[in-house]
Amino acid sequence: MNGVEQGFAAKPMGADARAKIETWLWIAQRASAALLALCVLVHLATIIYAVRHGLSGAAILGRTRGNDAWLAFYSLYVFAIAVHAPIGLRTLCQEWLGWRDASLNWVIGAIALALFIFGLRAGWAVFAS
Amino acid sequence: MDMLQVSVWRGGASGAYRIYEVPRQESQSVLDVVTYIQRNIDPTLSYRFACRVGMCGACAMTVNGVARWTCRTHVSKVVKGNAIEIAPLANLPVVKDLVTDMRGFFDKWARALGRFIPSATRKDDFARVASDSPERVAANAGIECIGCGVCYASCDVVSWNPDYLGPAALNRAWTLVNDVRDGARRERLAAVAGDAGCHACHTHLSCSERCPKNIAPTASIAGLKRAVAIAALKGEL
Amino acid sequence: MSMKNDYRARNHPAWWAFLVHRLSGLALSFFLPFHFLALGQALQGEARLNTLLRWTEQPLVKFSETMLVLLLAAHLTGGLRLLALEFLPWRGWQKSLLALAAGAALAAGLAFALVL
């Protein structure tokens, strides 16, 4: 017997569905952020290297063509971006545009899909061409 | 004698600033200024205060755009030339002049389960809590909150998200999450999860910057984020 | 209904850090589709990519690229600061994290600008 009888519900309530979704979005945002931290560091270093060693089509493709490691890296990078950017944009739209209904989630989902598809396409383009 | 040009909000939700001339003193708080206006110039001015000595938090107002305790704000620290602007706290409905309706603030406190829920009875022995245990240290860091509303008034997420529970309520919830005697951890984590709860905090740090008790609600909210995430990963949310 | 805060309430370093982080994220989100489409041009052959790369040699484009690198570096360092604030124990030196982040971002942007 404990103080739970003092009018407080005996059955523990779980978080409602919306709260659970927001929690998982937060986890996804931070996890993708950690992954992106590594990817962006590599990307910044790559950019600076590329600028110094040649930015022509030949030079760029010479480095990435047929290179499995770069394809894997860019695919991972694109996946992380497709998770991270849309979640951030969603928050911005909710807070600064007052856009909070279900249509926002559809639009954000579409953006995520588009980023994922076009990002993978770009990674494939420099690998396979 | 130097005169202060004091611009004070008069009215309710709609109204205007009215300018009063108040003699400037060498040692003068903003609360002294408001008191002078009400007693000597305009008795219709409404405002709240109680202790006058920085203990109760009742005199919190917006001074030159920043939420402060007026009894602990020296005029010389905030005056712009000879001008001061005094308004009610932001993010709360204005009742009249410098008085706000704090009910929403305290309702959110309740919604965050910001109250202790016991797990023992009078038949049980005293709880033994080491004062240097990590949980107690974490709770103590936030326990001095007196509910003055300065953090809530300073928070932009409160302005942008009407459902957001706010820094004070979440800070209190965190102190209770760290109270090993409390019996409602799961319910409380459920109450503070979501974008009405801790996940809406974007670490602006305005609350921590403005808290007159030097509490950092941002730290407490970060703790809630971690606790809720761990609960979710364990399937306990 | 209630009074609203203005810039006076927001005029402290951590708030500016938030703004930089959000706006840089927004700008990068706008840039990304163009970046993906441009690289995708390689699918139509190296010559096609070369045409696009020649276009990017204009000074205005080079300047924009420098800005983008700066924004990316700022978003990264600001993000690392946020991860530190949310996951590491709270310490007084956390305010200095902001200065560190700003410095590192600037350094990255400068490194890029210098190699151009």
Describe what you observe in this structure:
The complex is a heterotrimer of chains A (129), B (237) and C (116). Chain A is built from 4 helices and no strands. Chain A is 78% helix and 0% strand. Chain A has 129 residues and is mainly alpha-helical. Chain A has helices spanning 17-53, 57-64, 68-96, 102-128. In chain A, helix 1 (17-53) crosses helix 3 (68-96). Chain A starts with 16 loop residues before the first helix and ends with a helix. The longest helix of chain A is centred in the N-terminal third of the chain and has 37 residues, at 17-53. Chain A has one domain. Chain B has 237 residues and is α+β, with helices and mostly antiparallel strands. Chain B has 2 domains: 3-100, Beta-grasp domain (Ubiquitin-like (UB roll), Roll), CATH 3.10.20.30; 103-233, Alpha-helical ferredoxin (Fumarate Reductase Iron-sulfur Protein, Chain B, domain 2, Orthogonal Bundle), CATH 1.10.1060.10. Chain B has helices at residues 30-41, 75-78, 103-111, 134-142, 150-154, 156-160, 167-177, 185-192, 206-210, 217-233; strands spanning 3-11, 15-23, 60-63, 66-69, 83-87, 94-96, 99-100. In chain B, the strands form 2 sheets. In chain B, strands 2-1-5-3-4 form a 5-stranded mixed beta sheet. In chain B, strands 6-7 form a two-stranded antiparallel sheet. The longest helix of chain B is centred in the C-terminal third of the chain and has 17 residues, at 217-233. The model of chain B has no long low-confidence stretch (mean pLDDT 96). With 116 residues, chain C is an all-alpha fold. Chain C is elongated and about 55 Å long. Chain C has one domain: Fumarate reductase/succinate dehydrogenase, transmembrane subunit (3 helical TM bundles of succinate and fumarate reductases, Up-down Bundle). Chain C has 5 helices and no strands. Chains in contact: A-B, A-C, B-C. The A-C interface holds A 30, 33-34, 36-37, 40-41, 43-44, 47-48, 51-52, 55-58, 60-61, 81, 85, 88-89, 92, 114-115, 118-119, 121-126, 128-129 and C 22, 25-26, 28-29, 32-33, 35-50, 53, 56, 69, 72-73, 76, 79-80, 82-83, 86-87, 108, 111-112, 115-116.
